What we know:
The protein is mainly beta. It is built from three helices and 25 strands.
Amino acid sequence: MRTYLITLVGLLFVLFSYAAAYDPLDPNGNITIKWDVMSWTPDGYVAVVTMNNFQMYRHIMSPGWTLGWTWAKKEVIWTMIGAQATEQGDCSKFKGNIPHCCKKTPTVVDMLPGVPYNQQFTNCCKGGVLASWGQDPQSSVSAFQVSVGQAGTTNKTVKLPKNFTLLGPGPGYTCSPAKIVPPTKFFTPDLRRKTQALMTWNVTCTYSQFVAQKHPKCCVSLSTFYNETITSCPSCACGCENKHKCIKSDSKLLSMVGVNTPRKDNAPLLQCTQHMCPVRIHWHVKLNYKEYWRVKITLTNFNYRVNYTQWTLVAQHPNLNNVTQVFSFDYKPLVPYQLINDTGMFYGIKFYNDLLMEAGPAGNVQSEVLLQKDKDTFTLKQGWAFPRKVYFNGDECMIPPPDAYPYLPNLAHQNLVAFSTLFCSMLLILLVLF
Ligand SMILES: *[C@@H]1O[C@H](CO)[C@@H](O)[C@H](O)[C@H]1NC(C)=O
Ligand SMILES: *[C@@H]1O[C@H](CO)[C@@H](O)[C@H](O)[C@H]1NC(C)=O
Ligand SMILES: *[C@@H]1O[C@H](CO)[C@@H](O)[C@H](O)[C@H]1NC(C)=O
Ligand SMILES: *[C@@H]1O[C@H](CO)[C@@H](O)[C@H](O)[C@H]1NC(C)=O
Ligand SMILES: *[C@@H]1O[C@H](CO)[C@@H](O)[C@H](O)[C@H]1NC(C)=O
Ligand SMILES: *[C@@H]1O[C@H](CO)[C@@H](O)[C@H](O)[C@H]1NC(C)=O
Ligand SMILES: *[C@@H]1O[C@H](CO)[C@@H](O)[C@H](O)[C@H]1NC(C)=O
Ligand SMILES: CC(=O)N[C@H]1CO[C@H](CO)[C@@H](O)[C@@H]1O
């Protein structure tokens, strides 16, 4: 009965949290795409397109972003610097000068690092990788230049592109319509003069895990020093539809050359587990000192086809307001409302463990966190020491239901057991009597 109730409440909670595009731990998180018209041309304009990732802990990792839109009229792209359209489309109407892209709905991707100098643009050419704002604000921007033809040539006749789509590397983002905003002002390199765009419009894209995938992408397992039980991730936490495609960690297939080469469609190659998640976060309550307590966090990759670069882990726990030391990860408190300080992001140290390697012996990273006890609230009872929410790379992970937590061997729990035994026997007596 209790189990059912908790599961039901948990399920409702999960459903509810997936349906909302709004992320309570990062209420202002978005990616903005800004078009600055820098000059008019005889048949159109030259614009600088800048993408800013304002999300605290959600980055776009390799193979990077893909940006699409629909032209409002018969616009074409004459040239592009720092990015390229994936398809040229039908340019058969053009003689002499052939446009870069004639498609009504261009699809644009970033260039790879190391393209020739004359094809580069400031903040371009990172293979579409956008760091999260919380981790590396300098690398959270991407830009390219586009020269548009057959377009309006004044701020009255230009028609804004429509139906922006942002993929990165999978679905999940929904973009607003473009909106004209006050023109961006730029400083000249010597900072002594300001210039401004001839016209600017913005698009805002927000992420929803519900749009991205119907199942979570990660799960949490728990253990403690005071109870031997290891609470594993919930079964099929990430969906078991593809269970037949998973491979055992000792499979001979794994020695085949190219088996772990990333696929164009990002199809994973998962190690067989009972949870079928690509990533598991293990939270171990390790030690209880007088003034402090210590947690060990381990991230394990079960996907043979992904190296997670610049991974992020977000955890919510009431004691994160008194983090004393974080060993071998970087840590940053997230204070979305400036009121409750119970959430923080962990990420790898650059060039040390900011890469969570593909599944296998090297596919894990770990850290220990030392927290100072808040005497009024600290307890090992009722699973208080476990995280309330966990996100990996910006996706919420499934946490086991409270009744599966390892319990502190204490009276309260025994009482509960005793009570339910009593309840059952009473029921039995009633059944026997009537
Ligand atoms: C996008 O994010 C920025 C930075 O957090 C914020 O200032 C802005 O209001 C957000 N825009 C929308 C439409 O939410
Ligand atoms: C437009 O986007 C830029 C970032 O790309 C942001 O700084 C600016 O505040 C946005 N303007 C509006 C009005 O949202
Ligand atoms: C268009 O340009 C005129 C001046 O040339 C200016 O007054 C007007 O505010 C501009 N409109 C927009 C939407 O930028
Ligand atoms: C918007 O773009 C998407 C994907 O490119 C496409 O499926 C959809 O039909 C487009 N919608 C409109 C109104 O053009
Ligand atoms: C992950 O990185 C290692 C070392 O850089 C490389 O050998 C391996 O092929 C990469 N795996 C994937 C799936 O990209
Ligand atoms: C939040 O907690 C961290 C310690 O975990 C502390 O460094 C930070 O100053 C706190 N921030 C606020 C706004 O209380
Ligand atoms: C450890 O936790 C498990 C799972 O909640 C529980 O069944 C068990 O009784 C606990 N062990 C002890 C020694 O209390
Ligand atoms: C023991 C201790 O340092 N407690 C502090 C935990 O953090 C809160 C708010 O950040 C402080 O008010 C406590 O004093």
